[in-house]
Write a structure and sequence with these properties.
The chain is of the alpha+beta class and 511 residues long. It folds into 2 domains: 167 residues, RNA polymerase II/Efflux pump adaptor protein, barrel-sandwich hybrid domain (OB fold (Dihydrolipoamide Acetyltransferase, E2P), Beta Barrel); 220 residues, 2-Layer Sandwich (Chloramphenicol Acetyltransferase). The chain is built from 12 helices and 27 strands. The strands form 7 sheets. Strands 17, 20, 23, 24, 25, 26 and 27 form a 7-stranded mixed sheet that branches. A hairpin with a 2-residue loop joins strand 18 and strand 19. The relative contact order is 0.09. It holds the Pfam family Biotin_lipoyl. It comes from Roseibium hamelinense. This is Dihydrolipoyllysine-residue succinyltransferase component of 2-oxoglutarate dehydrogenase complex.
Length: 511
């Protein structure tokens, strides 16, 4: 019987914590109330004591990970390591040297369990395994990718050793705490590599680590590099310690990176032209849970809300001039680049304070007005659209907003967003301009009542003081729920955003 170790309640306003350090490792004997792990929050550092005596059976989350209150940290097996060894010896004194006793001891087998992905996530789908039974792995090597209806996450190896069992196959649905695989810690290799019998095959298919880093590419990136015949030196890694991520491979392909032609050209020539009829004309791919949820939520928003969109345009010249004048000084002082999202987020929070209906939501026959501004920023990733939230953006400076958006953007691209990062938003900003969109009608992010669509900045002839001049203009689109927001309020909101951006000093002076 195993006892679960979970994140304790950390205070009324604290919903998550970061794993600072583990004091024990799997297989260690522990006593009740003995400190096991140290957690850091934005307010305090706390130690989590052992809820029972026994042996630390498994560690689910590693140091540096962020977890929510109630999340599973690890499990304790009944009986201490010493007690278990004594019991085994007492039962089998006469067989101590027999071959049957050469099997790994129970405390050498570490269970890798499905981690908790958030309070509202009850199951996950097992994606592609990066290892096979018999492979030797190092601690923190990626074992498998899990997909939930909110996000995708990679499960790292909690310890070094040999994979002796895979309990959940690709495509299986598992609940938090379910067994994924087992690792025998008595066999520890110096590198994350398959068993000898499979080493040659792996050497042919898995790209080496990119130059300047000892981190191998992420599994999804490795697969895409192999499919496109790309080598590690053709892709620049943006992940932790320079690791190549799937997004890096996509960017490399988009920038025109191709495999060396010397090896592929002769083989292609020897095969001759490939008939068009030999190529598949269509491909059926199962939707991920995240994509299914995106599709369902967007359709629900259309079916439920009385959605309407109003448009305006803004002269981005003043913001661009201010940005050009101070961008170097801003980056030197704050350590982050001055972009447009900081200005837009602050302009939105000012307008939300003046038109609170756009920041409200409908609950049955009630309207819930929010006295705070949690602004969601829509981010497109290779897994789908996610909306991380900048909390209390109305209380932040432009520099603080830029830092938080940069941090959330990196976590989104690396697949590290947690549930706490994507819940609780009161309004959303979607920037289609980064893809070249000139105008669009964004769909509401239910249960929110408003979403602002940004678009491409394009120079156009404008009439200014009776003269035709060329100005950098952007179309703005506000989609809103007409059940709660009247047309007058929607237009007023959009005009206030326009005024703030065309006179950015208003943002500094809080006008």
């Amino acid at each position: 019987m195993a006892t679960e170790i979970r994140v304790p309640t950390l205070g009324e306003s604290v919903s998550e914590a970061t794993i600072a350090q583990w004091f024990k490792k799997p297989g260690d004997a522990i006593s009740v109330d003995e400190p096991l792990v140290e957690l850091e929050t934005d307010k305090v550092t706390v130690e989590v004591p052992a809820p029972a005596s026994g042996t630390l059976e498994s560690i689910v989350v590693k140091e540096g990970d962020t977890v929510e209150v109630g999340a599973l940290l690890g499990q304790i097996a009944e009986g201490g390591a010493a007690g278990a060894s004594a019991s085994t010896a007492a039962k089998g004194d006469t067989k101590a040297g027999s071959p049957e006793q050469q099997a790994p001891a129970a405390d050498q087998i570490v269970d890798v369990l499905t981690p908790s992905a958030g309070e509202s996530v009850t199951e996950a789908e097992v994606g592609s395994w990066s290892v096979n039974v018999g492979d030797v792995v190092k601690a923190d090597d990626t074992l498998v990718e899990l997909e939930t209806d909110k996000a995708a996450q990679e499960v790292p190896a909690p310890v070094a050793g040999k994979v002796v069992k895979i309990a959940a196959e690709t495509g299986a649905t598992v609940e938090p705490g379910a067994l994924l695989c087992q690792i025998d810690t008595s066999i520890v290799g110096g590198a994350s590599a398959p068993a000898k019998s499979e080493a040659p095959q792996a050497a042919e298919t898995a790209p080496a680590a990119s130059p300047g880093t000892d981190m191998p590419p992420a599994p999804s990136a490795s697969k895409m590099m192999a499919e496109n015949n790309l080598s590690a030196d053709q892709v620049s890694g943006s992940g932790k310690r320079g690791q190549v991520l799937k997004g890096d491979v996509i960017n490399a392909i988009a920038s025109g990176a191709t495999a060396p032609s010397s090896a592929s050209a002769p083989s292609a020539a020897s095969r001759g032209p490939v008939a068009a009829e030999d190529e598949p004309r269509e491909e059926r791919v199962r939707m991920t849970k995240l994509r299914q949820t995106i599709a369902r939520r967007l359709k629900d928003a259309q079916n439920t809300a009385a959605m309407l969109t109003t448009y305006n345009e803004v002269d981005m010249g003043p913001v661009m001039e201010l940005r050009k004048q101070y961008k170097d000084l801003f980056e030197k002082k704050h350590g982050v680049k001055l972009g447009f999202m900081g200005f837009f987020t602050k302009a939105v929070t000012h307008a939300l304070k003046e038109v609170p209906a756009v920041n409200a939501e409908i609950d049955g026959t009630d309207i819930i007005y929010k006295n705070f501004c949690h602004v969601g920023v829509a981010v497109g990733t290779d897994k789908g659209l996610v909306v991380p939230v900048v909390r209390d953006a109305d209380q932040m400076s432009i520099a603080e907003v830029e830092k938080e958006i940069g941090n959330l953007g990196r976590k989104a691209r690396d697949g590290k967003l947690g549930m706490a990062d994507m819940t609780g938003g009161t309004f959303t900003i979607s920037n289609g301009g980064v893809y070249g969109s000139l105008m669009s009608s964004p769909i509401l992010n239910a249960p929110q009542s408003g979403i602002l669509g940004m678009h491409k900045i394009q120079e156009r002839p404008m009439a200014v003081n009776g003269q035709v001049v060329i100005r950098p203009m952007m179309y703005l689109a506000l989609s809103y729920d007409h059940r709660i927001v009247d047309g007058k309020e929607a237009v007023t909101f959009l005009v206030r955003v326009k005024e703030s951006l065309e006179d950015p000093q208003r943002l500094v002076l809080d006008l």
